Amino acid sequence: MLLMKIDLHTHTCYSGCAVQSPEDLVKAAKRRGLDAVAVTDHNTTKAWKRVLDAGKKHGIGVIPGEEIKIFHKGEGAGEVLGLFLKEEIRPGEFPVVRERIKEQGGLLVVAHPFDAFRNSFRMLEEYKRHYDAIEVLNSRVVFGAFNKMALEFAKKNGIAMTGGSDAHCTLEVGNAYTIADIDDVRGLASAIRRRKTEPAGRKSNPLVHSVSTFAKLRPRKS
Q: Taking Cα atoms as reference points, which of 125, 134, 38 lies closest to residue 79?
């Protein structure tokens, strides 16, 4: 068994708010000593092939994923990470999105659930028995209290915990990650289901949010 370090929340230029290319994401992961990354662009899977190809070239494991917007009664109600996916999932109501993830044999992780500045997850208590994990360490959370609240909720309810950088540029990759004692990246799914994962890392400088502002002014990657 190996103690693997995996950044479970990253973005590429295929997200409208990120600037790093799929190849640069993988190269940054290599430099930061990660074993694998999950590519979780906003509501798109267009970066998958390029990240997978780069991962093979540089010896970095890749988990195909997506950050999916959740709606409740027609309004935005938070975001979840779908991991180990096989195809793109459209934004929608939580029960529908969860079903689509499970149909693909994937995992559902609630992203930055208490971040009041970035669409906190409104129905955390209501659906608490339907998550595979909660992201309790997100590097882009401005106030550490939001991560602390997620950690306390996960511990109280016996839910697996993950960490991710939420990187939108190469400087952020690996600032937070998930540790698991597994043979390879495929073993992460079992580790999460057994609640045998540990978040690690730190918050990013809040100035990284300016990267997203800049990215939104550029033409969207097609």
A: 134
The model's pLDDT over 165-178, given as tens digits with 9 standing for 90+, comes to 999 999 999 999 99
> Domain residue spans in the chain?
2-216
CATH architecture of 2-216: Alpha-Beta Barrel (3.20)
What one-character-per-residue DSSP string does 91-119 give? Answer: -EEHHHHHHHHHHTT-EEEE-STT-TTS-
Cα angle: 204, vertex 77, 135; to 5 degrees: 40
Q: How many CA atoms lie within 13 A of 141 on its CB side?
A: 28
What is the amino acid identity at position 157?
N
Segment 185-218, tens digit of pLDDT: 999 999 999 999 999 999 998 777 676 665 666 6
> Which residues fall within 8 angstroms of residue 209, CB to CB, at 6 or more apart?
140, 142
Any idea what the Cα angle at residue 203 is, between residues 198 and 205, rounded to 5°? 160
Two tokens at 88?
């793109």
The DSSP symbol for 221 reads: P
